[in-house]
Amino acid sequence: MYLDNAATSFPKPEKVYEAVLHAMRDVGASPGRGGYRCSLEAGRIVYKARESVADFFSIRDSSRVIFTHNATGALNLALQGTLVPGDHAITTSMEHNSLLRPLYALRKKGLELTIIPVGSDGVINVEDIRRELRANTRMIAVSHVSNVCGAIQPIQEISELCHNSGALFLVDAAQSAGHVPINVELMAIDLLAVPGHKGLLGPGGTGFLYVAPHVALKPVIQGGTGTNSTAEEQPLVVPDGFETGTHNLPGIAGLQAGIEFICEVGLSAIHQRENSLLIQAEQALRNITGVVIHGPANSSMRCSVLSFTASGVDSALLAAELDHGFDIAVRAGLHCAPLAHSSMGTAPGGTLRLSPGWFTTSEEIALFSDAVVQCIDKIRNIDNNS
User: Fold this and answer.
1) Cβ(103)–Cβ(130) under 8 Å?
2) Residues forming the active site
């Protein structure tokens, strides 16, 4: 039973597998690297995927979509491509290392960095950000949904704060894209980093960065682009100058198919099903002695994941027992977000994280809940008898 969709969604829709195989078996060539038919077909696949991404996220100009290998690559490009020594950036203690580590590296080079502490519910207080604004604040960077506890952040309020202060707004949508609506125009998002292999149901090694037209982005990797070959310097044209080297054509084809599937099923239907499964799991877990659900108390303020601990039970050991005894795949530990656990009071052991997907059933959640009871009882009995 697979319940770790927050890490990578699985299984994928059948049409995703078909699109990947078509790109590998029937097309094969690299886009933009030849004038022959299969290379042109590869280019059409990439263009179609770019258009699908743009439509899905209400991006007016699809050329502002830069394909990357994951959200981590997108975040690094967004940060390194805009921030310079002397700039000030604001982020929060709920962020994933994919955002924090590039910021730490930039801090060593002269970036001024403020990390806003977040309360135990994992929700950002916008006023805390407002108090840290400076004349040189260049960017506010936050995750839309916490990968640890599922807390949905007040993106619209933070966006307004950004633009009233003249700062760029970078959103890490790793846990929200494909789960809740994202409209870059209405939300006034300047930079949006998205993985393809999670909520968008695409293959691994896919993702993108959206860059608003007014944002001047610098390339961070130099190399072949298939265009402007006589220039010694990396071209600044979007997206060509930022998609250096060979595209992951099978992955991009699969990503486009994943978005198509979401559009066919309906984003609201996906959100409702996942939310219903999370509520079912939460109700069952709350009946277990010593189990604590972490994150916002109101389930409507959570999305994608459910994070919990059981008193006297190591989360990693509980996950191992679920795997070995019941073939249930869940994530335990710090989830690459150590500061979030410090804020929530779950450091150093972290939490056990459940993340169902579209293909998860209510019966599986019931089996998971029963398995948790058995595993906790087993662990506690062993501890009591040792």
Assistant:
1) no
2) 336
